[in-house]
Amino acid sequence: MKSEPDEVSIDDLAAAPQRAFPWTGVRNYQARNFMRDAMQPGDLAFFYHSGCKEPGIAGICEICSDSYPDPTQFSATDKYHDPKSTPEQPRWWLRDVRFVSRSRLLGLGELRRHPELAGMRVLARGNRLSITPVTAAEWQFITGQLLAPSN
DNA sequence: GCCAACGTTGGC
DNA sequence: GCCAACGTTGGC
Question: Nearest nt (C1') to A28 (CA)?
């Protein structure tokens, strides 16, 4: 799950009440579908910092709610307002995420260096999805790398 | 249903 | 700040 740390970082999640908040602002259908349909409470996700000086995995969070309509879509003053959404027919759904841990910054360049991660969705050429699936093998490999010294 | 124009993402 | 890549919009 990608977020720009200037907006919302892993530190913000750690500092939030209950160490959790709703993952607002996803406005891409594919990313929405992954969050709404493919996730379930208890799933873990990498918290990825994008659009910043050092993009990469910065920590781990846990999905901690069922999906429900993103409230920001209904708020005319919100930057994520969607005039085509109504409470009767919401377009955008989200889940709450809870802080699990920070990690060392596992940078994009480092991720790309590992052949084990060559097929990782988030690394695919031209990928712009802010939420992408991680395979079990990718998850295990990366968590192993997070335990290893930086290189 | 096609496709050009436009806006956004996100690494560099 | 640049720009490649991609999704969305809207005219036809």
Answer: C7
